[in-house]
């Protein structure tokens, strides 16, 4: 088994040297930690799929340190691309472009004529890419089927012995993966909601952005291939709880012989009668903190304090709430507490 080193954010040159050697190094971003490898080294890219246990037809994001680095692989950003890059790079926005034929290996693109590009906010990571001199592939650094990692410790848990190192720059900021926008088709479309919201995108572009995933799934428009795989499945069954349903949900929980977890806002925890068999995870003050903590909470009840059920708070599906609910619904297999007991 290989030893997985933890690099401090001052040791970025060592992390870059490993990338140049074709090794795998996990890296911080403002969304979640990614699993990095030289995107121009096919062998290294193939080992990313192995380390994650990821199906090899699910393409990888190409992570760059500047728009110029992305431009080497793209015929033309187009006016939409240019505007979005101006307003949101670096940041939690991934853009899918048609690429110059053959400019990236099919190990990266899964054989598509498009590729997804992202320039993260994290300066240490951009420095690592600059020093390596090549773009890096950057899927989330979790084992396939686990929540994306938001700390170096989460990465270590999943990847110890499988990768050369982890560049540690503390917990990530947003907590869920980037928004993906498809610009390889006529009208821009959101393939995955994330830190950049629908409203922000429409403000910048001045046109309607498709966000209904059914429309996005229409014949000629490729969905993010990753969407067909099961994601973020904790061992426990997750049930989504609407604000007003907490009293009823806790009554239900009290009658369970099994262990139940409650992931809720601080104010909900303070104002609730919490039964003895219920353990809690504090999601903080608001939607922003809840999004930041969601994956950590799910991992906590997988690894540190196993339970049979997780009751988790819901938000309106707008703004950042669209991203939060998208991830929570996947974790819950779409199960709402109310629908289950009614
Ligand atoms: O925030 C993020 O985006 C994180 C950090 C580490 O940068 N990365 C991330 O990567 O979430 P990953 O691989 O876990 O998710 C990327 C998604 C997958 O669902 C994949 O199918 C989709 O992007 N994707 C990649 N290339 C694509 C393409 N050419 N067209 C459509 N979807 C694509
Ligand atoms: Mg992922």
TrEMBL record:
Q: Which residues make up the binding site for L-threonine?
A: 31, 178
Put simply, this protein is called Threonylcarbamoyl-AMP synthase
A Gene Ontology term for the protein's cellular component: cytoplasm
Catalysed transformations (reactions):
L-threonine + hydrogencarbonate + ATP = L-threonylcarbamoyladenylate + diphosphate + H2O
Give the Gene Ontology MF terms in alphabetical order: ATP binding; double-stranded RNA binding; L-threonylcarbamoyladenylate synthase; tRNA binding
Give the GO terms filed under biological process for this record. regulation of translational fidelity; tRNA processing
Q: Which family does it belong to?
A: Belongs to the SUA5 family.
Role: Required for the formation of a threonylcarbamoyl group on adenosine at position 37 (t(6)A37) in tRNAs that read codons beginning with adenine.
Q: Which Gene3D superfamilies match?
A: DHBP synthase (3.90.870.10), Threonylcarbamoyl-AMP synthase, C-terminal domain (3.40.50.11030)
**Where does it localize?**
Cytoplasm
The gene name on file is SUA5
Q: Record the organism.
A: Ligilactobacillus salitolerans
Keyword ATP-binding carried by entry: yes
Q: What is its main location?
A: cytoplasm
Its Enzyme Commission number(s) read: 2.7.7.87
Residues annotated for ATP binding in this entry: 54, 58, 114, 118, 140, 148, 192, 232
């Amino acid at each position: 088994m290989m030893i997985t080193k933890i690099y401090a954010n001052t040791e970025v040159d060592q992390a870059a040297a490993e990338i140049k050697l074709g090794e795998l190094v996990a890296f911080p971003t403002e969304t979640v930690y990614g699993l990095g490898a030289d995107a121009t080294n096919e062998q290294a890219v193939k080992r990313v799929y192995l380390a994650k246990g990821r199906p090899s037809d699910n393409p990888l994001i190409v992570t760059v340190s500047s728009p110029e680095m992305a431009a080497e692989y793209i015929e033309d950003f187009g006016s939409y691309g240019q505007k979005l890059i101006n307003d949101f790079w670096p940041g939690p926005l991934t853009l899918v472009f048609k690429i110059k034929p053959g400019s990236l290996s099919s190990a990266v693109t899964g054989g598509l004529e498009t590729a997804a590009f992202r320039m993260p906010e994290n300066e240490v990571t951009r420095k690592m890419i600059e020093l390596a001199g090549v773009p890096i592939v950057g899927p989330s650094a979790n084992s396939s089927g686990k929540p994306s990692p938001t700390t170096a410790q989460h990465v270590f848990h999943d990847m110890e012995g499988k990768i050369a190192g982890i560049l540690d720059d503390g917990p990530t900021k947003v907590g869920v993966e980037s928004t993906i926008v498809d610009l390889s088709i006529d009208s821009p479309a959101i393939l995955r909601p994330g830190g950049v919201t629908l409203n922000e995108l429409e403000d910048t572009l001045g046109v309607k952005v498709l966000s209904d995933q059914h429309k996005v799934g229409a014949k000629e428009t490729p969905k993010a291939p990753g969407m067909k795989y099961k994601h973020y499945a904790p061992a426990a069954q997750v049930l989504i709880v609407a604000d007003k349903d907490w009293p009823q949900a806790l009554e239900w929980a009290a009658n369970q012989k099994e262990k139940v977890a409650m992931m809720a806002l601080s104010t909900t925890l303070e104002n609730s009668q919490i039964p003895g068999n219920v353990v809690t995870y504090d999601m903080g003050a608001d939607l922003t903190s809840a999004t930041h903590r969601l994956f950590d909470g799910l991992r906590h009840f997988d690894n540190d304090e196993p339970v049979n059920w997780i009751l988790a708070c819901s938000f309106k599906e707008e703004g950042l709430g669209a991203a939060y609910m998208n991830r929570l619904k996947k974790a819950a297999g779409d199960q709402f507490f109310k629908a289950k007991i009614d």
